[in-house]
Structures are given as structure tokens and as C-alpha cells.
Amino acid sequence: MNEMTPSREERTANLKGTGCARKRVEDARFTQGKGNYVDDVKLPGMLFGDFVRSPHAHARVTSIDPAAALALPGVVAVLTAKDLEPLNLHWMPTLAGDRQMVLADGKVLFQGQEVAFVVAEDRYIAADAVDLVEVEYEDLPVVVDPYKALEDDAPVLREDLEGQDEGAHGPRRHHNHIFRWEAGDREAAEAAIGGSEVVVSERIYYQRTHPCPLETCGCVASMDKVNGKLTVRGTFQAPHVVRTVASLLSGIDEHNIRVISPDIGGGFGNKVGVYPGYVCAIVASIVTGVPVKWVEDRMENLMATAFARDYWMDGTISATKDGRITGLKAHVIADHGAFDACADPTKFPAGFFHICTGSYDIPAAHVAVDGVYTNKAPGGVAYRCSFRVTEAAYMIERLIEILAAKLDMDAAELRRINFIKADQFPYQSALGWEYDSGDYHTAWEKALRAVGYEGLRAEQAQRIADFKAGKTRKLLGIGLTHFTEIVGAGPVKNCDILGMGMFDSCEIRIHPTGSAIARLGTISQGQGHATTFAQILASETGIPADQITIEEGDTDTAPYGLGTYGSRSTPVAGAATAMAGRKIRAKAQMIAAYLLEVHDDDLEWDVDRFAVKGATERFKTMAEIAYAAYNQAIPGIEPGLEAVSYYDPPNMTYPFGAYICVMEIDVDTGEHGIRQFYALDDCGTRINPMVIEGQVHGGLTEALAIAMGQEIAYDDIGNVKTGTLMDFFLPTAWETPNYTTDWTETPSPHHPIGAKGVGESPNVGGVPAFSNAVHDAFRAFGLTQSHMPHDHWRIWKIAHDLGLHG
Amino acid sequence: MIPGVFEYHRPGAVAEAVALLRAHGDEARVVAGGHSLIPMMKLRMAAPEHLIDLQGLDELRGIEIGAEIRIGAMTTQHEILTHSGLAEAAPIMAEAARQIADPQVRYLGTIGGNVANGDPGNDMPGLMQCLDARFTLAGPDGTREVAARDFFESAFMTTREEEEILTSINFARPTGGWAYEKLKRKIGDYATAAAAVQIAVEGGKVTAAAIAMTNLSDVPVLSAGAAAALTGTGCGPEAVKAAVDAMQADIDPVEDNRGPVEFKRHVAGVILARAIARAFERA
Q1: Residues A104, A108, A114, A120: is their CA dihedral positive or negative?
Q2: Contact A364/A325 with Cβ under 8 angstroms?
Q3: What does the pLDDT read at residue A497?
Q4: pLDDT tops 60 at residue B52
């Protein structure tokens, strides 16, 4: 039976393992409209919930009268805070250690806040009933500016916290203050900056925006009163955490709660948190005894579920006059809205913002972040980035450009002078991180060569001369970025959410015929886990990826894990997958040794089989071993071939990249055109190059959206001005440029297969690349800083203020 | 995003539709392509109790090209965009239609709905004023014609009576050069500023011009002053500047998410200058 052995190359190709551009197995159903999303869930007798929401940003709720709504045929219930209070569910804990109203308890704190929950027989009746609930409000003064929120006479937003000087993250310094968080050595940073030849300081605003996944948030809660089991299907990026939180909140034993994340239509951080809709649907199902569905619409999603960013960053960077950076200092005012509902690891209320020394060897640094309450929606989630990493990358990459202008130096050269060198890894940053690996100079030179950097600068100089001579009205911007991410949260010793360590998990069962199922604690929202995790496993176990099912998202079947966000799936669950695969292989080796009648150590692994060293014609394939594992009594070895691994990563991973954007800008209209975008990513070992390229394209397009148009804007009285997709910018194919992708490969030394995570890199690096291109176009005319989004009128205003309109 | 309760009607003839309007008064609205009204209903900013769908009225469809051009009110933007006779007779129509919304909307959105809704953001009202079009309205007492230049009163308010339906649009075959220039933030957006320009030129000099601007006031703005500034000139820099100055005196933009008033006034001038240059070049 051993004669027709295919070559090693053929067998490797047949596995479709790590490195293979395997087509996504999910796409057959997604592209045919055959996905199964939460709004596709239809259960017998299911009721529908809908919210009465506050039109006011800050008001006292003086009365709620549901009588007219309850009189409408088909309306089953109207829940208010008073109904939830006996269950102690009118407020709920947030992931950030704060508390949040589930339904308005005496007052509302942002426009769109949940005031009452209508339950009806269909969603049309529910929508009609929402209009019939009569709520009376008494306006209170509104605070939308976080600096004004910190003034002495600012209105008290969180009356429930009045007199509490201590918050979840230390002392509160003002009635609208949430926390101060610091990293680094303030004295050392100030001394370094004070003694420096060149210092620049700038306030850099990263505007409030929103992840805006195509599918909005929702759930179907179903309480089975016969067996006492609660099942919640929903758009959860972290289903196990939702189960634990639901158990803690409701008092239902955790084994009696089953949380299922079906197909999820994009998350980008928006689906990490716990929302009032989930709580209300669960309560309504417990009260009514039938399933209750709640799915928000687009306007509700933009207005009320988690936003991202809203960081006011005062950065100071110093250098010698020949461009050697000496110090960095940053102070951030972080607008968290009405409740602190960030989804950061608990010990990091400002996320990993202190990665803000970026790719540079900066000897002294200090950051301080003050969280502030305002009359805006809660959130502050990591929108396609690890926690606050895109804010950090944006700040340092803007400061580098501003410093280069001050030094009258080429910004590419300034970066080159200051990069952490390849031989400095593992590198201890001044703000406390240990960068695991990197080779920035190689990536940078490759990127500059690829775009013909010198030629671009010469063309730009000519363009400026032509512009000044009146020959053109278009400027050319060259946007440079070298970013370093920090992903894969994270080591349990310092990363947890509500006390739950941020490990992740994989459980594998090999079937007797040599195919397999693997279940993970993560959940794909479009990342392609079913494709790529099977590839990791294929390479580890020799079972073809096509014969491996990947299953996630059902807490009754999957092992506990912290979910998918912050590019943690590959660094953490991917590692667990590899480790579980290695356990399988270890047992398989023992079985093979028995079957081949040799010692374990006499075997070597060969793609999909164990072969006898020096006699490779004698082997057992993984399929043969699996069959034996179930069908043959092997002394000293349990039947079956299964493994589980819970992986606690020893460190974060540090993907990096070099992005260059070449942009044409029409100074008269503020329009832009992207002529070229080159993205080099180093995410360590590349599991599936095609999936990586797709991730990079998607992430860059979201970065384009943020840099060039996206914002959640409020007027002075707290009305959301960008509450529909007419005003909230989502690029279509038309606005999206062509991207050129490239890579270097610097494996992570501590990850089992060297992978680092990539899904969020393009957003982290893309935003500064686009923004730097805009700024660079105007550098010759004296522009220092102009806040995003760089939409038409804001670019026009740059030109106008610089006197370029004559 | 769920509309209130309404009764749906689908009449088979204009007279029937008019009778329904008459029967239900201001509780009724006609719907053409539905790309303005249906979103308003989903937002519950419009809550008609009777919705009269005009999709069954084949008599309101079609494009006829003669000495005059007649376009049925239910003709879609896509049909305008792809009609070869219209492309030859009035190429500005396709140039404008191509800049409206996106392909999915253009398959359903109609020229009649675009003008009759009276939305200052819509592109066709300004273009119709530029072309000096006439709208035919059918009511209980028969039909009447209203000039596009007299039709728009204020935002969403027109001279159409409640019981009337816009049935067709007529305009003379335009002559000379043309341009529809539009600045918008993204595909699917209304104009930040748009200009419709028709210029007739003889011997290098403008003999007649018509200029209308979109989304720069609560109604489309036909700028006679801008047209007069070009007439008799070769559209040199001074004439264009005079036209832009005259246009800027006629518009009245308001600040919104597209930008402040100062920006809109400025880009309106840039857009108009570009439209004039292109139209003159084509004349």
C-alpha cells in the first residue's frame, strides 16, 4: 500500500496549509446570499423589540406614559427603567469598569439613548408603538466639548457618581473626569525635551468616527421556561464573554446560558460591547416566555452603539538639529461620551496608546491620558485596530512629519535615522513595551524603491514650481508612514477583560477517517477563520485543510475564549490551534511508532505522515494513524485522537509596515485623487497571502474613509449631524483607489508559527498615510496641522487659509 | 426605518390617479421611483395614508425626439442616460443623469419625481430651468403647462396643485455647447455645487447662454445675470469672472455637512467657470 507515494511537494500542496492562497471556504455561502445572520433567525412565536430613544442630548425624564402604545393591538409590553429596577437591570456594568443605564433612569445623557423598550408581535407594530410612547423631557445644559466638560462650572453629567472621587482607574479630578492613565517617565521625558535643540508641539485631533459594519447589532433572546435555559443568538465578537456577563447580570447559572454568534456581517469593534438592546431582549424573553428579537437600524447603529476614536492629542517631540529624536511627551483628552464603555483590557483604560513611540528608538517618553464624560454616545472601541493603537500611530506619524518640516529635512530620511535597528530586537520601549521583532530599515528601503521615491520628490518640486507659476491648480502630496502595531492581547498576567484573562483556545477532534473538526474561542466576522485556521492545522497535522471544519461562536460547543478583535485571533487562537495540532501530532507519533514497531524517536514527521528515519518507505499517514487511534487497542494509549489547547501568549506581537500614498489635490475645490498607494506589511509568517491581501484592501479602504471623510459630528446641543450614510462616509468602489500590496516576513519569535496578525494593520498605517499625503501637499506652503477628516471643504480651507486662492 | 401604515394604490390611467388624489387630498402622495419619498416615509418624516404608485402608467414613459423633446415623467434616469436619440439631441441630459446618485437608484429614479419633489438638492430642476423646459400637469380639470422657471417656489414647494400629477416635460432642442458640472462628496451624494450651462456661439462670440445652479439656494437658481455677462464675449477670463460674480449674487447657500457658506460660494464659482469653459469648447 505504500508504493504510489506522491512527492513531498505534491503532498504539501495537497494540504493547502500555511502559505497557500487558498480560496475562502466561507464565500460560497456569502456570495450567494446564503449566510445565516441574526436577522435571519426566526423562532416560533418570536416577538420584536424596538426602542424609544431620546431626541435630547441631556435632559431630565419627567414622565413616561406607555398607555397609548399598550393600547395598540399587537403590543405586548413596554419596558422602562422602573420595570428593570426590581431586577437590578436598569443599569449594567460596562467592560471598562463603569456602569451604564440600560433604560433612562431619571435622565438622558446623549441623543439616541434608550428610554423605553417596546415589545410587539411584529416589527411594524413595534415601530408604530414607539411613536405612541409619550415621554416628557426637561432640557439640561449640554456639553459636547470635552475641554468645556472639565471647566469648574460645567454641568454635572453623571449625577450617579457625584461625590465619588475614586473611579475604576484611580482618582477622578473633576465631576466629569473618568480617569487619568500614565506611562513612561515624566521627568526624564521633560528633561530630554528641555535640553533639546529642536522641539515641536502640536494638538492633533483624531475625530470621533464609527465602525459602521454592514450588519448592524442585534440579538434574539430565547428563554426556555421548561428547562430553564436561556439561548441568546447575536452579533457578538466575544460570545463567551457575553455569556459570563449575562450570567453575572441575570443571576442565571452560566451553564444554563447558551450564546451563539451566527454569521456576523462585520464587527470592527462595534460588536464587542454589551448593549442595552441585549439586556432588554433577554428580560423581555424571560418575562414573556417567548423569543424576542432586537435588531437596530442604521441610524440607531451610528447614533447609539459604540463609536471609535475622539482623542485630542497634545504631542511634543524633540530632536537634535541633525534629526536624532531625543524625547516624546503626549497628553490626551479622551472623550468617552456619557458612559465609559470602552472595550479595552481592564488594566489599560487608554488601551495600548503607549505604543506611541512607534517605530522609533526614542530614549525618553511620557504619556498621560484623561478620560472625560460628555453628552455623546458611549464607546471608544478599537475600530479595526488594536486598542487605541491607530490613535497612537496617527499621533507619532504626524509628529514625525511636523518635526521633519521644522528640521527642513526629508521625512523619509528622518524616519531612517530614528528607526529601531534590526539588531536592537527584542527592544524595550521607553513606555514599557518589549517589541518582539522587526526589521524596519529593510521594509522602508523596499517601499521607497518600489514607488521611486526620489523621482516622486523631484516631480513634486516641479509641481510646486508650476503651481507658483500659475501653470496648474493641483498639488502633489506624498504621504509616508511607517507604523508599528501591537496586537494579540494578550498575556494573562496583564491583559484581562472584567477579570477574564485574554488567553484563547482551540479544541480539535480528528475523526476515524482522518478528517477533523476544530472549535475555537474566537468568532469570525468576515476575517476568514474557517479558511485560515484550517490551514494552520493542516500544516501541523498533515490533514488537508479541505478536510477540516472550523467552528466558532457557540458557547455550548466551543472552548472558552475572549473573542475576535484587536487582531488577536491569529496571535492567540491561531497559536492555540498550532499547539493543539502539535498535541495531536505527539499522540499520533506514539501510535505510529506502535504500528511501525519502532521507537518514537526513530520516526520523523514528513508533511502528512510519520516515517521511519533512514527507511522512509516505512510510514503511517495521519489518516492511517487516526483510523488506528479509534479502531485498534494500543497498549498504554487511550483511544481517540483529540486535543485542546488554551494559549496564554508570552508577549504581544508587533506587526509593522511601510505605506506610501501619492495624492493629487485640487486646491480650488478640495477634491483629491489617489494616484498610487503602496502598502508593505510585515505580519510575520503569512498563513494565506490572498486573505492577507483582502484584509489589507479592506483595511485601507476603511482608513481612506476615516482620513478623507468619516466622522460622527455633533452640533452644540448634542444633535448627531452625521446619522445616515448620506453624511457618514462609506466609500464605494468609485471612491476606492487601486492598492499595491507588498511584504517582508519577520516571524514573531514567540508565536508557535511566527504569525503576528494583519487585519488591522492597514487601518493603523493607512490613516496617517492618507492624512500625511494631504499635509505633505501643502508643506511647502507652510501647513503644520489640519484635523481630519480631509473632506472637500476642509482641504479647501487649508488652501484658503494659506492664501492659495489669490 | 419602518414607515407608518398606508394604503397602496396602483392606478392604470392618469385620470384614475388624479381621481385618487382628489378623493384623498393631502392624505395621499404619488410615488414614482420612490427614491426620495420612501426614505422620507421610513424616517417617518412623511406619513401619507394613501400611496399612489405611478409605475402602472405606461403613458407617462418614453422619450420623443422631434423639433421639441418630450420626456414622459416616469422615464428613469437610466433611460435618459442610455437613449441614443437624446444623447444626440440634448447631450447635457445624459451628462447630468450620469452624475445623479448611483446605477441602482438610476434604474428606478425618474425625471418626473426628480423635478416634482422640489428638492433643492436634485439635479434636474436646475437643468430644466437652464433648458427652459415646460412641465405638463394633469389635474381634475385637464392639463396645463408650467415653465420650469416658474415652477419652484421654495424647498419642496412647487406650483403643482395637490390634485395634479406631473406627466411630461418638453423643451426645445438645445443648440451650441453644453456642460453639467457637479461637485459632490461621493457617489450618491447631492451636489455641493452644480452648474448647468448651455451656450450658443457664432464667430467665436456667445449669442445666447443659459446658466442654472443646483443646491445653492432653496430653489434652483437661474442666473440671468451670469448668462448676460457671457453674451457677446468669447468667454475670456474677464467674462467668466463677470458671470461668476453675477451668479454669486444670485445664490444663497446655507451651511451643512458639505461645508460653510464661504466655501460653497467659492466652489460654486469654480464649478461654473469649469462648466462655462467646457461648454464654450464644445460650442
Answers
A1: positive
A2: no
A3: 86
A4: yes
Secondary-structure class of domain A307-489+652-801 per CATH: alpha beta
Domain B177-282, CATH: 3.30.390.50
Evaluate if residue A3 carries a pLDDT over 60.
no
Task: Please check whether residue A792 touches B, CB under 8 A.
Answer: yes
Residues of B within 8 A of A721 (CB-CB) are 257
The bridge status of strand B142-147 relative to strand B193-202 is: unpaired
> For residue A99, what are the contacts with CB-CB under 8 A and spacing of at least 6?
A91, A92, A93, A160, A339
Residues paired with residue A218 on neighbouring β-strands, in sequence order:
A295
The pLDDT of residue A500 is 87
What gap in Å lies between CA A765 and CA A702, rounded to an integer? 11
Stretch(es) of chain B classified as CATH 3.30.465.10: 63-172
Residue A557 pLDDT grade (very low, low, confident, very high; cuts 50, 70, 90): very high
- Mean predicted confidence (pLDDT) in B155-181: 97
Residue A183 main-chain phi, psi, to 5 deg: -145, 150
Q: Which residue of A has its CA nearest to B1?
A: A297
Q: Tell me, which fold does domain A38-140+216-264+271-304 have in CATH?
A: Aldehyde Oxidoreductase; domain 3 (3.90.1170)
- Look at residue B224 and give its three-state secondary structure: helix
- pLDDT surpasses 50 at A1: no
Q: Look-up: residue for cell 476603511?
A: A702
What is the side-by-side order of every strand in the sheet holding A548-552? A548-552, A516-520, A504-510, A642-647
User: Which of A100, A237, A525, A547 is labelled catalytic?
Assistant: A237
Determine whether A237 is an active site residue.
yes
Return the residue of A nearest to B188 by Cα: A726
Tens of pLDDT along A305-340?
A: 999 999 999 999 999 999 999 999 999 999 999 999
What are the C-alpha distances in Å from A118 to residues A74, A111, A278, B47? 11, 18, 13, 21
Disruptive mutation site among A792, A794, A801, A804 for chain B (greatest number of B CBs within 10 Å): A792
Q: What ipTM was assigned to the predicted interfaces of this complex? A: 0.96
CATH topology for the B63-172 domain: 3.30.465
Q: Which residues of A touch B192 (CB under 8 A)?
A: 792-793
Provide the Cα torsion A354, A359, A360, A366; round to 10°: 0
pLDDT at A4 over 80: no
Residue A677 cell numbers, joined: 498607494
B25 contacts B19 by C-beta, under 8 angstroms: no
**3-class DSSP state of B192:** coil
The reply to whether residue B263 touches residue A796, judged by beta carbons under 8 angstroms, is yes
In this chain, the answer to whether the domains covering A38-140+216-264+271-304 and A307-489+652-801 adopt an identical fold is no
Q: Which of B45, B184, B185 to mutate to test the interface with A (most CBs of A within 10 A)?
A: B185
| CATH code for the structural domain at B7-53 | 3.30.43.10
Beta-strand relationship, A379-381 and A364-373: unpaired
Domain A8-35+504-647: which CATH number of 3.30.365.10, 3.10.310.20, 1.10.10.10, 3.40.30.10: 3.30.365.10
Q: Do B259 and A793 touch (CB under 8 A)?
A: yes
List, for residues A666-678, the tens digit of each pLDDT value.
999 999 999 999 9
Cα A33 to Cα A53: distance, rounded to the nearest angstrom: 32
Strands A379-381 and A307-319, how do they pair? Answer: parallel
Choice among A189-198, A377-386, B220-229, B236-245 with the minimum mean pLDDT: A377-386
Contact indicator for B94, B180 with CB cutoff of 8 Å: no
* pLDDT per residue as tens digits for the range A405-433: 999 999 999 999 999 999 999 999 999 99
CA distance B153 to B114: 15
Chain segment A280-308, per-residue pLDDT in tens:
999 999 999 999 999 999 999 999 999 99
